[in-house]
TrEMBL record:
Residues binding Mg(2+), per UniProt: 216, 236, 240
Name assigned to this protein: fumarylacetoacetase
InterPro entries for this protein: Fumarylacetoacetase (IPR005959), Fumarylacetoacetase-like_C (IPR011234), Fumarylacetoacetase_C_sf (IPR036663), Fumarylacetoacetase_N (IPR015377), Fumarylacetoacetase_N_sf (IPR036462)
Species of provenance: Actinoplanes cyaneus
UniProt-listed SUPFAM superfamilies: FAH, Fumarylacetoacetate hydrolase, FAH, N-terminal domain
Length: 397
């Protein structure tokens, strides 16, 4: 219980307490805040700790799990014990009076490909007559390194990318004609690791602080022409959007579930049988305000703990602020697909919207919003906020 009067609809209750960075006006210095109901708790003002006045979560994230747990416990006490009310109240700001910024400085960015339904859908589209999954898919979490400098906070405009693509079998240059979304879940690294030292699956929570929402925008025509043999490049690097709130792993104890049964035996470094980190998250994708998909995260074949173990098993080191994303979240039903290329089946089955229009891929002016919820410790559901982006025309040279 809390002495605050919390609206039930926000999903930012006392069992959530996500972290973000905010400003009160254009001239104010950004600082750390925690969402509680429809308000933001100003940690810099309340605690006087300079780590919360840096304009980024990174310095706090680097302090590690003991500090994360201690501060979370203190915040819960401040917001539940009426004895703290007089001290805390001046540092509670209306959510609609602040502007949310990028919550952390991204060190490295890795995107995975961990939904079996998504991978099989694309395999059926592009490799008809062949197995839907590539031979390695059930043996390791496939991923690629992205461009950290183009990871931006929700609300950043999505300028339609341009590049090379095939037009009637001939290379052409111009704005992407097949601009797409990828509804994903991101994991934020707090504690760095030592170069040459892998991170085991059971140490996942010792390194990863929390979870955010990700839209890894994709130019499917650019990607299709460039990706052989090295993989995604310009078709993915123009923008990746993240939500402004990072939900701590500590808030997700009730959301932890076992991952799906694996069809192939796992190599020892990926064996998560004693440390399962499947998460029961329910995503929702809206196109111009209309729900077009509800992807379920609990069915992801590879978990974030396995992704982190695979990412570091060759000795690659972690840095504070590293972001790795799940890859497109899709379920078995048509209305559970997390990308337009699946929802429209590569353009062959246009998606019908309530206003009578159809979409195969995104048009200029379209707005995409991704939200998610998860079971909370008090029996309610907690929110991850949202990640939103609006498409604007290509910026011609």
């Amino acid at each position: 219980m809390t002495w605050l009067d919390l609206p039930e609809s926000t999903g930012f209750g006392i069992t959530n307490l996500p972290y973000g960075v905010f400003v009160t006006d254009s001239s104010a210095a950004p600082r750390t805040g925690v969402a509680i109901g429809d308000q933001v708790l100003d940690l810099a003002g309340l605690t006087g700790d300079p780590v919360h006045a840096t304009g980024s979560l990174n310095a706090f994230l680097a302090q590690g799990p003991e500090s994360w747990a201690a501060l979370r416990s203190m915040i819960a006490a401040w917001l539940t014990d009426p004895a703290h009310r007089e001290r805390v109240t001046p540092h509670l700001l209306p959510m609609d009076s602040v502007t949310l910024r990028m919550p952390f400085e991204v060190a490295d960015y890795v995107d995975f490909y961990s939904s079996r339904d998504h991978a099989e859908n694309l395999g059926r589209m592009f490799r008809p007559g062949s197995p839907a999954l590539t031979p390695n898919w059930k043996h390791l979490p496939i991923g690629y390194h992205g461009r950290s400098g183009t990871v931006q906070v929700s609300g950043t405009p999505v300028t339609r990318p341009q590049g090379q693509y095939l037009a009637d079998g001939t290379p052409a240059f111009g704005p992407s004609r097949r601009l797409d979304i990828e509804a994903e879940v991101g994991f934020v690294v707090g504690v760095p690791s030592v170069l040459g030292t892998p991170v085991p699956v059971h140490d996942f929570s010792s390194y990863v602080f929390g979870v955010c929402l990700v839209n890894d925008w994709s130019a499917r025509d650019l990607q299709a022409w460039e990706y052989v043999p090295l993989g995604p490049f310009l078709g993915k690097s123009f923008l990746t959007s993240v939500s402004p709130w990072v939900v701590p792993l500590a808030a997700l104890s009730e959301a932890r579930v076992k991952p799906p049964v694996r069809d192939e035996p796992l190599l020892p470094y990926l064996d998560d049988s004693d440390a399962p980190w499947g998460l029961d998250l329910s995503l929702e994708v809206r196109l111009n305000g209309e729900v077009v998909s509800r992807p379920p995260f609990r069915g992801m074949y590879w978990t974030a703990a396995q992704q982190l173990a695979h990412l570091t098993v060759n000795g690659a080191s972690l840095r504070t602020g590293d972001l790795f994303a799940s890859g497109t979240v899709s379920g078995p039903a048509r209305d559970e697909r997390g990308s337009l290329i699946e929802l429209s089946w590569d353009g062959a089955e246009p998606l019908e919207l309530p206003d009578g229009t159809t979409r195969t891929f995104l048009q200029d002016g379209d707005e995409i919003t991704i939200t998610a919820t998860a079971p909370a410790a008090d029996g309610s559901h907690l929110s991850f906020g949202h990640v939103t982006g609006t498409i604007r025309p290509t910026a011609l040279p």
